[in-house]
Amino acid sequence: MKNLVKLFIIVTIVIGCTFVSHAQTSLKIGHIDFNTLLAAMPGIDSVKIKLQGYQKTLTDQMDAMKAEFENKYMDYQSQASGMSDLIKQTKEKELSDLQARIDAFQQKANQDLQAKQQELVAPFIEKAKTAIREIAKENKYTYILNAIEDVVIYKEEADDVMPLVKKKLNIQ
Fold first, then answer.
1. Residues 6 or more apart in contact with residue 125 via CB below 8 angstroms
2. Strand partners, 143
3. Torsion angle of alpha carbons 98, 99, 105, 109, nearest 10°?
4. Cα 147 to Cα 60, 78, 126, 141, distances in angstroms
5. Contact predicate 137/28, CB 8 Å
6. Which of 15, 148, 170, 172 would you call most buried, defined as having the most Cβ atoms within 10 angstroms of its Cβ?
């Protein structure tokens, strides 16, 4: 009986060591700087140009609204001394409403710009992720990490998969 228990323990240890050593040898980690990959993708320059154009349109509108506010405020200041209380209150309300519209426009413009960026960049991100997944499967990587300096604090020597992904995407 004691020999059977010893044999069972030895077999369990051998099997456990086999699984552990198999798990250790099958782990393969690579890294890539995802932002650098996106910047190198063909067509991303046109996205930047479209975003800059959209941002300029929003900025021009914002500047026009601010100029209108400035003009009305200067007009108010120059004529305030001769205005009745009712006219002063009306002008102050008008200025306050205009400032609120400017603030609301600025907030909405920021949201719209972010949404536009996400809309235009999303296909490139998906294409890059698909290529990375394919490279991972083809080369039997367990993990591929984004090698951005602030995200990965420490890494031991690992494979940089950038050349493989660039080749997959036909990027020079």
1. 38
2. 29
3. 150
4. 38, 59, 18, 15
5. no
6. 148
pLDDT tens-digit series, residues 4-28? 555 456 666 767 655 555 555 578 8
pLDDT, tens digit (0-9, with 9 covering 90-100), for 119-142? 999 999 999 999 999 998 999 888
Task: Give the list of residues 6+ apart from residue 16 with CB closer than 8 angstroms, or none.
Answer: none
Amino acid type, 127? K
Nearest to 129 by CA among 165, 164, 158, 160: 165
Domain boundaries, the chain: 2-168
The position carrying tokens 């405020």 is 73
Kindly report the length of the chain.
172
